[in-house]
Amino acid sequence: MLADYLLKRLGEARHVMVLTGAGMSAESGIPTFRDTEKGMCAEFRAEDLATPEAFQTNPARVWRWYEERRAKIRSARPHAGHQALVVLESLVPELSVITQNVDGLHQLAGSRNVTELHGNIMRSKCHITGRSISADWLAGSSQGAPQSPYVSHGFARPDVVWFGEMLPREALQQAMDAAVHCDFCISAGTTSLVQPAASLPLMAQEHGASLIEINPLETPLSPHADQCLRGAASEILRTIVGQLESWKRDADHGPQL
Ligand code: NAD
């Protein structure tokens, strides 16, 4: 449950930023990278495949791994936490969802203002030129990494940010703008280890925002948060949005000065 003073700040906030990580999608059946029991690290560590070096060494293997991830994501559906953020968008003047996830579940749920910091797994691009490659071009390709349409010795790769790569400049700028301007920040389902995303909630706090964390486990962000809500994102986000709806109803029906 969100503390009363934070509920009031959320109710009065003009701009809310929500930063989400892999834990936000866990309840939709998409494992986090660090979820060793049922995670995709079972055969290979994600850190060993989601890199430019791994792709250079064995494009076909990396492409196959991503094909498996795509298949899993295609069958995934948003959960109550994603839906709660859609409702939240209708309750506050401005909501920015900044996600490290590449699965598109926030948009599928109906969130309108989503910034994808790490790209989107359903898109592909040329690994040499970075130019976007259409699904039609890829449709005819077989098992391995498909040939790029732009360079004879180039391949298609997923349009996601790999370990060691820069974030898309525009997305990072949007995220930093949201961090600087928001007055309430929610960090949900992220280890707060992957930079620069991990710095965004602290940047928001430095600029005066209240900060809460939603995660079953302690993270490096926890000591900085005004409140840590320990548990699953679906349940906690639903509760917070329910609290906010009640708060707004009470505020609307209160005495008018
Ligand atoms: P992570 O895998 O390192 O950590 C996930 C975090 O979520 C952990 O702190 C865990 O305690 C928490 N968590 C687990 N279940 C949760 C739940 N039900 N509710 C709330 N929190 C929960 O993920 P990360 O820190 O976001 O960083 C890893 C990178 O891997 C990301 O940048 C992302 O791009 C990528 N990734 C994306 C997806 C996806 O698109 N769904 C999946 C795996 C990894």
Architecture overview:
The chain has 257 residues and is of the alpha/beta class. It has helices at 4-12, 22-26, 46-49, 52-57, 59-74, 80-91, 105-109, 135-139, 169-181, 200-206, 233-253, and strands at residues 15-20, 94-99, 114-116, 119-126, 132-133, 156-160, 184-188, 210-214, 227-229. The strands form two sheets. Strands 3-2-1-7-8-9 form a six-stranded parallel β-sheet, sandwiched between helices. A three-stranded antiparallel β-sheet has the order 5-4-6. Helix 1 packs across helix 11 and helix 9 (169-181) packs parallel to helix 10 (200-206). The two termini are 30 Å apart. It binds nicotinamide-adenine-dinucleotide. Nicotinamide-adenine-dinucleotide (NAD) binds at residues 21-23, 25-27, 30, 32-34, 100-103, 118, 189-191, 193-194, 214-217, 219, 232-233.
